[in-house]
């Protein structure tokens, strides 16, 4: 009887040991799966960032003069590319809603959660400040890294201004957000607000954008907007001096599809400035600044830094291949610093930049993003005409 009991105990212990070994094996597999997934995310983000910088450089919309002249409607390269990118990004979202709805909804709700903490007043104010910075500095948050890669003089000063803005906003965020209560409408979508089927609204939005691009190209052909430095280069290749802006915009917007599908993340770049400045503080000091603290750790925060570094690399590769490195006309150093500060501060206040709100958020059709986008162009255009009339910047 005693032997039977001992045998039973031994069998139980063996089962437990076997089970533990199985669990350990499963844990090991899960750990490797976790590591491989993150390595894959890093690789995909680097590729997307590189292509993002390459496409923007090839389309030449990073050049300060084209950004400024778009604001006074002298050049339309930037607007053609922006509309094309927005249309393609919206089409990407439309397709993802059909083939990977659950994955897309996670990104969609994550973006909505960010907007729930914002008021229309704050989003509008941020957009207005961002627009001023665009016209003064001839740049935008993501474009800073394209300009650095393409060797634009004084673009490093735009970066310095942007980092100072990221620091300033991070330290004062709690006071800034407390000054305005969140609005429910900010996180609503256009189709929710007007109570029309989302599919119909998305299709109409894409059609209107495509029509706008077509009209701009008909009335202002892109070759009249751009003065070629070298006419002997091929039309559409990695060694081209410039790509047709509509093609460039479509290529850029298509990156949204892969970002959402493979990374579950919308395109955006301004958060990288906050992540960068959060790294300079000891952790004990960060405890006093919860907004900066949340940007210090986590793969998604580091991916945003990796994205802009890859944008820099893509832009540099494109500019050397196209023979245009360090050939873009810069802005005055003072304008570079001031513009950099305003455009990043405005973007962080609004919760997104030209890419984050302008392309991603507007593609999702969030009211907050649409308001931010309209605000940034409104202030940029008004300042552009004021500066032109008063011979201030141009």
Outline the fold blueprint:
Layout: H1 2-59, H2 64-71, H3 77-99, H4 101-116, H5 120-137, H6 141-149, H7 155-178, H8 190-194, H9 198-219, H10 222-225, H11 245-263, H12 271-278, H13 283-286, H14 290-293, H15 299-321, H16 333-350, H17 354-364, H18 367-389
Short description:
75% of the residues lie in helices and 0% in strands. It has 394 residues and is mostly helical.
Order of helix and strand elements from N to C terminus: HHHHHHHHHHHHHHHHHH
Average pLDDT number: 89
Contiguous uncertain segments of 5+ residues: none
Helix content: over 70%
Q: How does the overall form come out from the CA principal axes?
A: globular
Number of strands: 0
Radius of gyration: 24 Å
Task: List the total number of helices.
Answer: 18
Counting copies of identical and different chains, the oligomeric state is single chain
Structural class: mainly alpha
Strand content: under 5%
Termini distance? 100 Å
Q: How does this structure look, described?
A:
There is one protein chain. Helix 1 runs parallel beside helix 15. It is built from 18 helices and no strands. The chain is mainly alpha-helical. The relative contact order is 0.21. Helices cover 75% and strands 0% of the residues. It is globular and about 70 Å long. The chain starts with a helix and ends in a 5-residue tail after the last helix.
For the structure shown, list the relevant keywords.
18 helices, mainly alpha, 394 residues, 0% strand
């Amino acid at each position: 009887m005693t032997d039977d009991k001992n045998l039973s105990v031994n069998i139980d212990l063996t089962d437990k040991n076997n089970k533990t070994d199985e669990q350990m094996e499963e844990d090991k597999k899960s750990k490797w799966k976790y590591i491989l997934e993150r390595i894959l995310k890093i690789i995909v983000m680097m590729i997307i960032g590189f292509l993002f910088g390459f496409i923007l450089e090839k389309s030449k919309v990073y050049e300060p003069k084209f950004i400024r002249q778009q604001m006074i409607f002298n050049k339309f390269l930037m607007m053609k590319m922006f509309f094309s990118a927005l249309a393609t990004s919206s089409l990407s979202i439309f397709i993802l809603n059909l083939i990977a709805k659950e994955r897309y909804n996670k990104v969609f709700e994550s973006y909505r959660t960010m907007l729930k903490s914002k008021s229309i007043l704050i989003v509008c104010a941020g957009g207005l400040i961002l627009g001023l910075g665009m016209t003064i500095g001839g740049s935008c948050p993501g474009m800073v890294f394209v300009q650095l890669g393409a060797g634009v003089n004084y673009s490093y000063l735009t970066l310095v201004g942007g980092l100072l803005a990221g620091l300033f906003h991070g330290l004062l965020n709690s006071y800034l957000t407390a000054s305005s209560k969140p609005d429910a409408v900010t996180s609503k979508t256009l189709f929710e607000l007007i109570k029309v089927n989302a599919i119909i609204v998305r299709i109409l939005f894409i059609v209107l954008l495509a029509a706008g691009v077509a009209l701009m190209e008909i009335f202002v052909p892109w070759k009249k907007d751009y003065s070629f430095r070298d006419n002997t280069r091929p039309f559409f290749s990695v060694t081209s001096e410039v790509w047709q802006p509509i093609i460039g915009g479509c290529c850029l917007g298509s990156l949204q599809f892969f970002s959402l599908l493979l990374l579950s993340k919308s395109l955006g770049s301004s958060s990288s400035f906050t992540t960068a400045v959060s790294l300079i503080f000891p952790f004990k000091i960060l405890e006093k600044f919860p907004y900066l603290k949340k940007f210090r750790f986590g793969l998604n925060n580091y991916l945003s830094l990796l994205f802009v570094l890859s944008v820099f690399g893509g832009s540099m590769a494109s500019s050397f291949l196209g023979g245009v490195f360090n050939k873009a006309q810069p802005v005055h150093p003072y304008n570079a610093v001031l513009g950099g500060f305003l455009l990043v501060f405005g973007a962080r206040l609004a919760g997104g930049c030209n890419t984050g709100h302008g392309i991603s958020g507007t593609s999702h059709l969030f009211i907050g993003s649409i308001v931010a986008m309209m605000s940034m162009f409104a202030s940029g255009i008004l300042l552009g005409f004021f500066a032109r009339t008063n011979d201030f910047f141009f």
